[in-house]
Design a protein that fits this description.
Order of helices and strands: HEHEHEHEHHHHHEHEHHHHEEHHEEEEE
Mean pLDDT: 87
Structural class: alpha/beta
Number of helices: 16
Strand content: 5-15%
Distance between the termini: 64 Å
CATH class of the largest domain: Alpha Beta
CATH topology of the largest domain: Rossmann fold
Helix content: 40-55%
Protein backbone atom coordinates (compact mmCIF):
# COMPACT_ATOMS: atom_id res chain seq x y z
CA UNK A 1 0.00 0.00 0.00
CA UNK A 2 1.07 3.59 -0.65
CA UNK A 3 1.27 5.42 2.67
CA UNK A 4 1.21 9.20 3.16
CA UNK A 5 4.51 10.79 4.15
CA UNK A 6 5.64 10.49 7.75
CA UNK A 7 4.84 14.14 8.42
CA UNK A 8 1.40 13.87 6.85
CA UNK A 9 0.67 10.88 9.07
CA UNK A 10 1.99 12.61 12.18
CA UNK A 11 -0.17 15.67 11.49
CA UNK A 12 -3.23 13.42 11.77
CA UNK A 13 -2.03 11.16 14.59
CA UNK A 14 -1.18 13.99 17.01
CA UNK A 15 -4.69 15.45 16.85
CA UNK A 16 -6.46 15.31 20.23
CA UNK A 17 -3.80 13.12 21.85
CA UNK A 18 -2.45 13.78 25.35
CA UNK A 19 0.92 12.04 25.16
CA UNK A 20 3.10 9.94 22.85
CA UNK A 21 5.82 7.76 24.38
CA UNK A 22 7.79 8.49 22.38
CA UNK A 23 7.36 10.70 19.32
CA UNK A 24 10.87 9.91 18.09
CA UNK A 25 10.16 6.16 18.17
CA UNK A 26 6.85 6.66 16.38
CA UNK A 27 8.58 8.61 13.62
CA UNK A 28 11.09 5.77 13.19
CA UNK A 29 8.33 3.17 13.03
CA UNK A 30 6.40 5.22 10.47
CA UNK A 31 9.54 5.72 8.39
CA UNK A 32 10.27 1.99 8.42
CA UNK A 33 6.66 1.28 7.45
CA UNK A 34 6.94 3.73 4.57
CA UNK A 35 10.19 2.21 3.33
CA UNK A 36 9.06 -1.41 3.55
CA UNK A 37 5.41 -0.90 2.57
CA UNK A 38 4.37 -2.81 5.71
CA UNK A 39 1.56 -1.42 7.88
CA UNK A 40 2.11 -0.87 11.60
CA UNK A 41 0.15 -2.99 14.04
CA UNK A 42 -2.03 -0.69 16.16
CA UNK A 43 -3.51 -2.27 19.26
CA UNK A 44 -6.50 -1.17 21.32
CA UNK A 45 -7.57 -3.22 24.30
CA UNK A 46 -11.28 -3.41 25.09
CA UNK A 47 -12.44 -4.28 28.60
CA UNK A 48 -15.83 -6.01 28.15
CA UNK A 49 -16.86 -5.56 31.78
CA UNK A 50 -19.99 -3.85 30.42
CA UNK A 51 -21.68 -4.55 27.09
CA UNK A 52 -22.62 -0.92 26.35
CA UNK A 53 -20.19 1.43 24.63
CA UNK A 54 -20.57 5.16 25.17
CA UNK A 55 -19.18 8.30 23.55
CA UNK A 56 -16.20 8.21 25.89
CA UNK A 57 -15.09 5.00 24.15
CA UNK A 58 -15.50 6.68 20.77
CA UNK A 59 -12.57 9.05 21.42
CA UNK A 60 -9.95 6.31 21.29
CA UNK A 61 -11.89 4.28 18.70
CA UNK A 62 -11.74 7.27 16.34
CA UNK A 63 -7.98 7.42 16.77
CA UNK A 64 -7.79 3.75 15.84
CA UNK A 65 -9.93 4.50 12.77
CA UNK A 66 -7.49 7.27 11.79
CA UNK A 67 -4.67 4.72 11.79
CA UNK A 68 -6.85 2.44 9.67
CA UNK A 69 -7.46 5.21 7.15
CA UNK A 70 -3.71 5.82 6.99
CA UNK A 71 -3.29 2.19 5.92
CA UNK A 72 -2.23 0.55 9.18
CA UNK A 73 -3.58 -2.63 10.78
CA UNK A 74 -6.13 -2.09 13.54
CA UNK A 75 -6.17 -4.82 16.19
CA UNK A 76 -9.03 -4.80 18.68
CA UNK A 77 -8.31 -6.97 21.71
CA UNK A 78 -11.38 -8.12 23.59
CA UNK A 79 -10.07 -8.74 27.11
CA UNK A 80 -12.36 -11.63 27.92
CA UNK A 81 -9.62 -13.25 30.04
CA UNK A 82 -8.46 -10.04 31.77
CA UNK A 83 -12.10 -9.13 32.46
CA UNK A 84 -12.16 -12.12 34.79
CA UNK A 85 -9.49 -10.27 36.80
CA UNK A 86 -11.14 -6.84 36.62
CA UNK A 87 -9.26 -3.70 35.54
CA UNK A 88 -8.31 -1.75 38.70
CA UNK A 89 -7.56 1.46 36.74
CA UNK A 90 -8.95 4.47 38.58
CA UNK A 91 -10.77 2.27 41.08
CA UNK A 92 -10.79 2.81 44.82
CA UNK A 93 -11.86 -0.76 45.54
CA UNK A 94 -11.63 -4.21 44.04
CA UNK A 95 -13.54 -4.43 40.79
CA UNK A 96 -16.07 -7.25 40.30
CA UNK A 97 -14.85 -10.16 38.20
CA UNK A 98 -16.79 -11.56 35.24
CA UNK A 99 -17.29 -15.17 34.27
CA UNK A 100 -15.73 -16.33 30.99
CA UNK A 101 -19.21 -16.57 29.43
CA UNK A 102 -20.19 -13.03 30.49
CA UNK A 103 -16.92 -11.58 29.21
CA UNK A 104 -17.18 -13.35 25.83
CA UNK A 105 -20.81 -12.28 25.35
CA UNK A 106 -20.01 -8.67 26.22
CA UNK A 107 -17.06 -8.81 23.85
CA UNK A 108 -19.30 -9.74 20.91
CA UNK A 109 -21.53 -6.76 21.66
CA UNK A 110 -18.46 -4.51 22.00
CA UNK A 111 -17.21 -5.36 18.51
CA UNK A 112 -20.65 -4.91 16.94
CA UNK A 113 -20.92 -1.44 18.44
CA UNK A 114 -17.30 -0.49 17.74
CA UNK A 115 -17.97 -1.27 14.08
CA UNK A 116 -20.07 1.89 13.95
CA UNK A 117 -16.73 3.72 13.96
CA UNK A 118 -14.14 1.19 12.77
CA UNK A 119 -13.92 -0.37 9.32
CA UNK A 120 -15.04 -3.81 10.50
CA UNK A 121 -13.73 -5.54 7.39
CA UNK A 122 -10.24 -4.23 8.06
CA UNK A 123 -10.22 -4.79 11.82
CA UNK A 124 -8.49 -7.79 13.37
CA UNK A 125 -10.41 -8.88 16.45
CA UNK A 126 -8.81 -11.14 19.07
CA UNK A 127 -9.83 -12.56 22.44
CA UNK A 128 -6.93 -12.64 24.87
CA UNK A 129 -8.18 -15.84 26.47
CA UNK A 130 -6.80 -17.55 23.36
CA UNK A 131 -3.25 -17.10 24.68
CA UNK A 132 -3.58 -16.08 28.34
CA UNK A 133 -5.85 -19.04 29.05
CA UNK A 134 -3.09 -21.41 27.90
CA UNK A 135 -0.45 -20.09 30.30
CA UNK A 136 0.64 -22.52 33.03
CA UNK A 137 1.26 -21.54 36.62
CA UNK A 138 5.00 -21.62 35.97
CA UNK A 139 4.42 -19.19 33.05
CA UNK A 140 2.63 -16.81 35.43
CA UNK A 141 5.46 -17.03 37.96
CA UNK A 142 7.98 -16.29 35.23
CA UNK A 143 5.88 -13.34 34.05
CA UNK A 144 5.54 -11.98 37.60
CA UNK A 145 9.31 -12.03 38.02
CA UNK A 146 9.59 -9.18 35.51
CA UNK A 147 7.87 -6.66 37.81
CA UNK A 148 8.33 -5.65 41.45
CA UNK A 149 5.72 -4.69 44.03
CA UNK A 150 7.42 -1.31 44.36
CA UNK A 151 6.86 -0.61 40.66
CA UNK A 152 3.23 -1.70 40.91
CA UNK A 153 2.69 0.71 43.80
CA UNK A 154 3.86 3.57 41.56
CA UNK A 155 0.43 3.28 39.95
CA UNK A 156 -1.76 6.10 41.30
CA UNK A 157 -4.82 4.04 42.26
CA UNK A 158 -2.72 1.35 43.94
CA UNK A 159 -0.71 3.96 45.82
CA UNK A 160 -3.86 5.75 47.07
CA UNK A 161 -5.42 2.51 48.25
CA UNK A 162 -2.20 1.37 49.91
CA UNK A 163 -1.80 4.64 51.82
CA UNK A 164 -5.44 4.65 52.93
CA UNK A 165 -5.21 0.97 53.92
CA UNK A 166 -7.80 -0.06 51.34
CA UNK A 167 -7.43 -3.74 50.37
CA UNK A 168 -5.51 -4.57 47.20
CA UNK A 169 -5.88 -8.16 46.05
CA UNK A 170 -2.85 -9.91 44.57
CA UNK A 171 -4.81 -10.76 41.43
CA UNK A 172 -5.12 -7.03 40.67
CA UNK A 173 -1.35 -6.86 40.24
CA UNK A 174 -1.74 -9.48 37.53
CA UNK A 175 -4.04 -7.30 35.40
CA UNK A 176 -1.39 -4.96 33.93
CA UNK A 177 0.96 -7.93 33.48
CA UNK A 178 -1.72 -9.88 31.62
CA UNK A 179 -2.53 -6.86 29.44
CA UNK A 180 1.19 -6.46 28.79
CA UNK A 181 1.35 -10.09 27.64
CA UNK A 182 -1.17 -9.17 24.94
CA UNK A 183 1.47 -6.85 23.50
CA UNK A 184 4.13 -9.55 23.81
CA UNK A 185 1.93 -12.05 21.97
CA UNK A 186 0.89 -9.64 19.20
CA UNK A 187 4.23 -7.84 18.80
CA UNK A 188 2.25 -4.69 18.03
CA UNK A 189 3.97 -1.40 17.21
CA UNK A 190 1.57 1.03 18.89
CA UNK A 191 -0.97 0.77 21.70
CA UNK A 192 -3.77 3.28 22.27
CA UNK A 193 -5.63 4.05 25.47
CA UNK A 194 -7.14 6.71 27.69
CA UNK A 195 -4.93 8.59 30.12
CA UNK A 196 -6.13 6.23 32.86
CA UNK A 197 -4.49 3.37 30.94
CA UNK A 198 -1.00 4.89 30.83
CA UNK A 199 0.44 2.56 33.46
CA UNK A 200 -0.93 -0.53 31.70
CA UNK A 201 0.40 0.65 28.34
CA UNK A 202 3.86 1.24 29.81
CA UNK A 203 3.87 -2.24 31.37
CA UNK A 204 3.22 -3.66 27.91
CA UNK A 205 6.10 -1.61 26.56
CA UNK A 206 8.41 -2.87 29.33
CA UNK A 207 7.41 -6.51 28.89
CA UNK A 208 7.97 -6.40 25.14
CA UNK A 209 11.50 -5.19 25.85
CA UNK A 210 11.99 -7.94 28.45
CA UNK A 211 10.93 -10.56 25.89
CA UNK A 212 13.25 -9.19 23.20
CA UNK A 213 10.57 -7.40 21.18
CA UNK A 214 10.79 -3.82 19.91
CA UNK A 215 8.83 -1.79 22.51
CA UNK A 216 5.48 -0.39 21.51
CA UNK A 217 4.79 3.32 21.23
CA UNK A 218 2.13 4.37 23.78
CA UNK A 219 -0.45 6.99 22.78
CA UNK A 220 -2.88 8.25 25.41
CA UNK A 221 -6.13 10.06 24.73
CA UNK A 222 -8.18 12.51 26.75
CA UNK A 223 -10.98 11.09 28.92
CA UNK A 224 -14.40 12.46 28.02
CA UNK A 225 -16.26 14.03 30.95
CA UNK A 226 -19.82 12.78 31.30
CA UNK A 227 -23.09 14.70 31.13
CA UNK A 228 -22.77 15.65 34.80
CA UNK A 229 -19.75 17.80 33.92
CA UNK A 230 -17.70 16.26 36.76
CA UNK A 231 -16.71 12.62 36.38
CA UNK A 232 -15.41 10.80 33.33
CA UNK A 233 -18.21 9.31 31.25
CA UNK A 234 -19.35 6.02 32.73
CA UNK A 235 -22.47 3.93 32.44
CA UNK A 236 -22.26 3.04 36.15
CA UNK A 237 -22.25 6.73 37.09
CA UNK A 238 -25.34 7.45 35.01
CA UNK A 239 -23.61 10.22 33.04
CA UNK A 240 -23.11 8.35 29.78
CA UNK A 241 -24.45 8.76 26.25
CA UNK A 242 -24.37 5.27 24.74
CA UNK A 243 -23.96 4.10 21.15
CA UNK A 244 -27.22 2.17 21.45
CA UNK A 245 -29.29 4.97 22.97
CA UNK A 246 -32.32 5.79 20.87
CA UNK A 247 -31.92 8.86 18.63
CA UNK A 248 -34.33 10.78 20.88
CA UNK A 249 -32.42 9.91 24.04
CA UNK A 250 -29.06 10.57 22.42
CA UNK A 251 -30.16 14.01 21.21
CA UNK A 252 -31.71 14.94 24.57
CA UNK A 253 -28.68 13.83 26.56
CA UNK A 254 -26.36 15.77 24.30
CA UNK A 255 -28.33 18.91 25.07
CA UNK A 256 -28.06 18.17 28.79
CA UNK A 257 -24.27 18.57 28.91
CA UNK A 258 -23.00 21.74 30.63
CA UNK A 259 -22.29 24.64 28.22
CA UNK A 260 -18.66 24.56 29.28
CA UNK A 261 -18.23 21.08 27.76
CA UNK A 262 -19.60 21.92 24.32
CA UNK A 263 -16.25 22.89 22.83
CA UNK A 264 -14.55 19.77 24.20
CA UNK A 265 -17.32 17.52 22.88
CA UNK A 266 -17.10 19.14 19.44
CA UNK A 267 -13.32 18.69 19.40
CA UNK A 268 -13.25 15.09 20.61
CA UNK A 269 -16.40 13.65 19.04
CA UNK A 270 -16.86 15.30 15.67
CA UNK A 271 -13.90 17.55 14.85
CA UNK A 272 -14.35 17.55 11.08
CA UNK A 273 -18.13 17.82 10.95
CA UNK A 274 -18.19 20.61 13.52
CA UNK A 275 -15.11 22.65 12.63
CA UNK A 276 -17.22 25.77 12.02
CA UNK A 277 -19.27 25.29 15.19
CA UNK A 278 -16.29 25.84 17.48
CA UNK A 279 -16.08 29.48 16.42
CA UNK A 280 -19.63 30.16 17.64
CA UNK A 281 -19.66 28.22 20.92
CA UNK A 282 -19.04 31.26 23.11
CA UNK A 283 -21.56 33.46 21.27
CA UNK A 284 -24.41 30.97 21.14
CA UNK A 285 -23.67 27.86 23.25
CA UNK A 286 -27.22 26.50 23.03
CA UNK A 287 -27.32 26.58 19.24
CA UNK A 288 -23.83 25.08 19.14
CA UNK A 289 -25.08 22.24 21.33
CA UNK A 290 -28.05 21.63 19.06
CA UNK A 291 -25.73 21.44 16.05
CA UNK A 292 -23.48 19.06 17.99
CA UNK A 293 -26.44 16.88 19.02
CA UNK A 294 -27.66 16.63 15.41
CA UNK A 295 -24.16 15.69 14.23
CA UNK A 296 -23.76 12.94 16.85
CA UNK A 297 -27.17 11.37 16.15
CA UNK A 298 -26.45 11.52 12.40
CA UNK A 299 -23.13 9.71 12.96
CA UNK A 300 -24.73 6.79 14.79
CA UNK A 301 -28.04 6.74 12.92
CA UNK A 302 -28.80 9.08 10.01
CA UNK A 303 -29.51 12.70 9.10
CA UNK A 304 -33.22 11.84 8.99
CA UNK A 305 -33.10 10.37 12.50
CA UNK A 306 -31.24 13.46 13.73
CA UNK A 307 -33.92 15.77 12.34
CA UNK A 308 -36.71 13.69 13.85
CA UNK A 309 -34.95 13.60 17.22
CA UNK A 310 -34.69 17.39 17.21
CA UNK A 311 -38.39 17.72 16.36
CA UNK A 312 -39.22 15.30 19.18
CA UNK A 313 -37.13 17.29 21.64
CA UNK A 314 -38.74 20.60 20.68
CA UNK A 315 -42.24 19.14 20.93
CA UNK A 316 -41.72 17.45 24.32
CA UNK A 317 -39.31 19.78 26.10
CA UNK A 318 -39.83 23.17 24.47
CA UNK A 319 -43.53 23.08 23.60
CA UNK A 320 -44.31 20.74 26.56
CA UNK A 321 -46.43 18.42 24.41
CA UNK A 322 -46.57 14.63 24.30
CA UNK A 323 -44.70 12.85 21.49
CA UNK A 324 -46.61 11.96 18.33
CA UNK A 325 -45.96 8.22 18.61
CA UNK A 326 -46.38 6.64 22.04
CA UNK A 327 -46.50 2.89 22.58
CA UNK A 328 -49.86 1.58 23.79
CA UNK A 329 -49.97 -0.83 26.76
CA UNK A 330 -53.13 -2.86 27.38
CA UNK A 331 -54.13 -4.25 30.79
CA UNK A 332 -56.71 -6.75 32.00
CA UNK A 333 -57.75 -4.39 34.80
CA UNK A 334 -60.30 -1.63 34.22
CA UNK A 335 -58.55 0.55 36.80
CA UNK A 336 -55.18 0.43 38.53
CA UNK A 337 -53.35 2.36 41.29
CA UNK A 338 -50.81 4.66 39.67
CA UNK A 339 -47.99 3.28 41.83
CA UNK A 340 -48.59 -0.24 40.46
CA UNK A 341 -49.00 1.10 36.93
CA UNK A 342 -45.54 2.68 37.04
CA UNK A 343 -43.93 -0.59 38.10
CA UNK A 344 -45.84 -2.73 35.57
CA UNK A 345 -44.83 -0.38 32.75
CA UNK A 346 -41.21 -0.48 33.81
CA UNK A 347 -41.23 3.29 34.38
CA UNK A 348 -40.02 2.62 37.92
CA UNK A 349 -38.00 -0.41 39.10
CA UNK A 350 -39.88 -0.69 42.40
CA UNK A 351 -42.86 0.64 44.32
CA UNK A 352 -40.57 2.74 46.52
CA UNK A 353 -39.00 4.37 43.45
CA UNK A 354 -42.47 4.92 41.96
CA UNK A 355 -43.57 6.58 45.18
CA UNK A 356 -40.50 8.81 45.12
CA UNK A 357 -41.25 9.90 41.55
CA UNK A 358 -44.82 10.79 42.51
CA UNK A 359 -43.66 12.75 45.55
CA UNK A 360 -41.31 14.73 43.30
CA UNK A 361 -44.23 15.67 40.99
CA UNK A 362 -42.64 13.71 38.14
CA UNK A 363 -45.77 11.76 37.15
CA UNK A 364 -48.75 13.04 35.15
CA UNK A 365 -51.84 11.45 33.62
CA UNK A 366 -53.15 13.36 30.59
CA UNK A 367 -50.98 16.32 31.71
CA UNK A 368 -52.50 16.33 35.21
CA UNK A 369 -49.96 15.89 38.04
CA UNK A 370 -50.48 12.93 40.33
CA UNK A 371 -49.70 13.61 43.98
CA UNK A 372 -51.15 10.51 45.66
CA UNK A 373 -49.45 7.16 44.98
CA UNK A 374 -52.73 5.30 45.52
CA UNK A 375 -54.71 7.30 42.95
CA UNK A 376 -56.80 4.87 40.88
CA UNK A 377 -56.35 5.37 37.15
CA UNK A 378 -59.41 4.32 35.10
CA UNK A 379 -58.31 2.46 31.95
CA UNK A 380 -61.63 2.22 30.12
CA UNK A 381 -63.26 4.52 27.53
CA UNK A 382 -60.08 5.88 25.91
CA UNK A 383 -56.28 5.50 26.30
CA UNK A 384 -54.65 7.77 28.84
CA UNK A 385 -51.17 9.26 28.46
CA UNK A 386 -48.86 8.66 31.41
CA UNK A 387 -45.67 10.66 31.70
CA UNK A 388 -42.93 9.54 34.13
CA UNK A 389 -40.07 11.97 34.48
CA UNK A 390 -38.96 14.02 31.50
CA UNK A 391 -38.60 11.39 28.80
CA UNK A 392 -40.88 8.42 29.50
CA UNK A 393 -44.35 8.43 27.91
CA UNK A 394 -46.89 5.61 27.81
CA UNK A 395 -50.44 5.17 26.57
CA UNK A 396 -52.46 2.88 28.84
CA UNK A 397 -55.87 1.33 28.42
CA UNK A 398 -57.94 -1.73 29.34
CA UNK A 399 -58.00 -4.57 26.83
CA UNK A 400 -61.79 -4.51 26.71
CA UNK A 401 -61.66 -0.97 25.43
CA UNK A 402 -60.30 -2.26 22.09
Amino acid sequence: MRFPTVQEQLDIIVGNIVEIISTEELEKKLQHSLQTGSPLKIKLGADPSRPDLHLGHSVVLRKLREFQDLGHEAILIIGDFTAMIGDPSGKSKTRPQLSAEEARENGKSYFEQASKILDAGKTTICYNSDWLGKMSFSDVIRLSSHYTVARMLERDDFERRYRSREPISIHEFLYPLAQGMDSVHLKNDVELGGTDQKFNLLVGRDLQREYGIAPQVCITMELLVGTDGKEKMSKSLGNAICFNDTPNDMYGRMLSIPDGLTETYCRLLAPQALAGVLENVAENPREAKRTLARAIVAQYYSLTAAGEAEEHFDRVFVQKKAPDNIELFLFDEQACPVIDLLVMLGAAPSRSEARRMIQQNAVTIDEQKITDANTMIPLVEKPKTLRAGKRKFYKVAAKKTF
